[in-house]
């Protein structure tokens, strides 16, 4: 068995959720926050047989799109200190960041 962990943008979360259910995949959605942008995103935990990993990857690929987001100047120290990023910059986020892990044990009681 494999555990597919997919970090997706909140805008794609409902679409991905619907597509996974339509295709018969079970998933858990966790509310998460990106470490860099400090913006909300959604993390899916999807447990599948190893033969289904490519199918799940396809569903994720179809459901999630890349978007540009503005990263505004951040100043973690506050008063009078130059921000780490002194001007707004565009970053491309997603479609999805996906990890596939081996599952040692799976139990469902
Ligand atoms: P964030 O950490 O908020 O990152 C949002 C976007 O900012 C990233 O998009 C990337 O384009 C940019 N970015 C992130 N860290 C950067 C850095 N050190 N320097 C320059 N640009 C940087 P994505 O790569 O598509 O990532 C989207 C979200 O996926 C991330 O949100 C994070 O929540 C998750 N993620 C990405 N890579 C990860 C990893 N190696 N481990 C755990 N989570 C990851």
UniProtKB/TrEMBL annotation:
Gene3D superfamilies registered for this protein in UniProt: 3.30.70.120
Superkingdom of source: Bacteria
Keywords for the protein's UniProt record, in alphabetical order: Receptor
Keyword Secreted: no
Pfam annotation, one family: CdAMP_rec
InterPro entries assigned to the protein according to its UniProt record, in alphabetical order: CdAMP_rec, N-reg_PII-like_a/b, N-reg_PII/ATP_PRibTrfase_C
Name of the protein this chain belongs to: Cyclic-di-AMP receptor
């Amino acid at each position: 068995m494999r555990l597919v962990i997919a970090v997706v943008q909140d805008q794609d979360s409902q679409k991905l959720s619907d597509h996974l259910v339509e295709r018969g995949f079970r998933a858990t959605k966790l509310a998460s926050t990106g470490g860099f942008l400090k913006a909300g995103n959604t993390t899916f935990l999807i447990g599948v047989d190893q033969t289904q990993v490519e199918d799940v990857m396809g569903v994720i690929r179809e459901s999630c799109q890349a978007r540009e987001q503005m990263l505004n100047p951040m100043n973690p120290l506050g008063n009078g200190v130059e921000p780490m990023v002194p001007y707004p910059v565009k970053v491309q986020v997603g479609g999805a960041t996906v990890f596939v892990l081996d599952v040692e044990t799976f139990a469902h009681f």
